[in-house]
Structure formats: C-alpha cells, structure tokens
Amino acid sequence: PARWRLPDEITILSVVKIPPLFFLVGMTAACALPPVDPGPAPSAGEGPLELLQPHWDQVCMDDRTPIPFLRVDEVIEDQGLAAAVNALLPPPVGDEAPAQVDVAITYARTGEVRTVHAAGHNVEPHMAEAVAARVAPRVRAQERLLAPTFLRLRVTRGETEAALRLLRGWRCLPHISHDPGEPPRFLEGARVSSAGMYGRTILSTSLHVQVLLHLARTGEVVAIEATLGDETLVPRVRRAIAETVINPGLLNGEPVESTVHLLFRFPD
C-alpha cells in the first residue's frame, strides 16, 4: 500500500549511512577484544652485547714513575761504548731518519740490574739485539733504591759515536687479542661499537655496565668487578669474555699484573 512507502530521503539515508554504522560497530567490537599476548619480555642483559670502548689496540706511554738518574754516566760505564754501538748500526740513506734503538733497563729495589733488553727500534731486530747485548755488561749496579726503577737508554747513530740519552721507562696497557684488521670476537654474539665511552645519551637510554678486569701476568682474568651501571649484567659479561684472549700489561717489555676497564651496553 502507498501508505507504507518510505520517503525518498529515508531511503537515501539507509543506503548512505547504514554501512558506515556497521563499520563503526565492527571497529568498536575489535577494540574490545583482548590484546594478543606477546609472551614474557626478555630479561635484562639477554639482548645483544656491545663493547663501547675498544681495547684491542696496543697503547704504550712513558711510565709516570720518576727516574732517579739525571746523567748517562750514572747508569752506563761508557769506556768506548758509544763508538762500539755506533758501529753496529747502519748509516742513514738519503733522507731516512738515523738508526735508533731503545734499550730497556730494569733495576730491582736493591739496586741490582734485573733485565736489559732491546725495546723500540727502527732497525732490523738482530741489530737492536746486538746493541742491547753490547750495552748490558756496561750497566752500573746502584745502591739501594726506594723502589724498582724502569728506564730506557736511547742509542742514536751519529757520525762517529752514538748519542746516548736516558728516558723514562715505558708502560703498555692490556689489550684484547684479535686478528689483524678485525675487532675481537666474543662469545654469545657480542659485537664492538665505535660509540664513545662516556656518551650520556647512550648510558641514559640503555642497560650498561662498566667492569674492571684484574689480570694476572699471563693475561688471565682473575677477578671482575662492576664499577658503573647495573651489577646484575656482570655474569653476562663474564660469559661473553670467557674465551677472549687478553694480552697483559707490559712494563719495559715485561708482563705485569694489571687492570683494564671495559664498558658494555645492551642496546634497547
């Protein structure tokens, strides 16, 4: 019957607005569904391990311990030594730097000579060793010293005689052994980052721990302690470096007990 016919505007409303209504209802129902459980969050320190400060390059510097000697003749009995060692070194060719050998000398606290050996040099190793062998018998014993003393005698080739000069001993920091041109390898997927050690952004936005490794003269890690950050991450670091070879610190070329700081983070 005509009286039951819907007006045109109502028919248009039904066509245009009812489908969006169903869409809104469907969205509301979907939002009301419980979220999918992603499972337990990873525990602290379970993510990738990242070493922030590289310690795989050998770093050497002058020892800060003052040496009690001011003159070469306090350490060396010359008696023609300068001319003798000069003859062992090759003359410079063209604009090359003159031949030079550092002879490391180590005294015990008693003043006895402990070791004499070639250290840094710019000549063939056998030449440096020959210079050290010629110098060794001429090193004077000292009266009792306040502490063990480490110094170097620098031998530089001259026209007729070598120049002899006393320098401080040299100390090399511990470093992680690695293949040439490659960063060190760690267990458990640890990687190396070129990020700076003390970046505030890095430390404030990620889990991190700085550890102090106590090393024996062999380079063996005898103790690990946390000095900064989350101490609960130390076991993770311990596992990562379990098979890492660390070269010990050197004092005048001799291995010594030493310590080294390593800073690790676990990126977010």
Description:
The chain is of the alpha+beta class. Helix content is 21%, strand content 29%. A hairpin with a 2-residue loop joins strand 13 and strand 14.
Task: Briefly summarize what is shown.
With 268 residues, the chain is of the alpha+beta class. It has 5 helices and 15 strands.
Write out key terms for the chains shown.
268 residues; alpha+beta; four-stranded antiparallel β-sheet; 5 helices; 15 strands; elongated; disordered N terminus
The major sheet is characterized as: 5 strands, mixed
Runs in which pLDDT lies below 50 for 5 or more consecutive residues are 1-7, 9-45
Number of helices: 5
Kindly, what is the distance between the CA atoms of the first and last residues, rounded to a whole number of angstroms?
71 Å
Cα-based radius of gyration, to the nearest Å? 35 Å
Instruction: Give the integer mean of the pLDDT values.
Output: 78
Number of strands: 15
Helix content: 10-25%
**What pattern of helices and strands is seen along the backbone?**
HEEHEEHEEEEEHEEHEEEE
Order of adjacent strands in the largest pleated sheet: 9-1-15-10-11
Beta-strand residue fraction: 25-35%
Overall form: elongated
SSE class: alpha+beta
Please give the structural blueprint.
Blueprint: H1 8-32, E1 50-51, E2 60-62, H2 81-86, E3 100-107, E4 113-121, H3 125-135, E5 149-156, E6 163-168, E7 170-172, E8 175-176, E9 191-192, H4 200-205, E10 207-215, E11 221-229, H5 234-240, E12 246-247, E13 249-251, E14 254-256, E15 258-266
Parallel strand pairs: 1-9
Antiparallel strand pairs: 1-15, 2-7, 3-4, 3-5, 5-6, 7-13, 8-12, 10-11, 10-15, 13-14
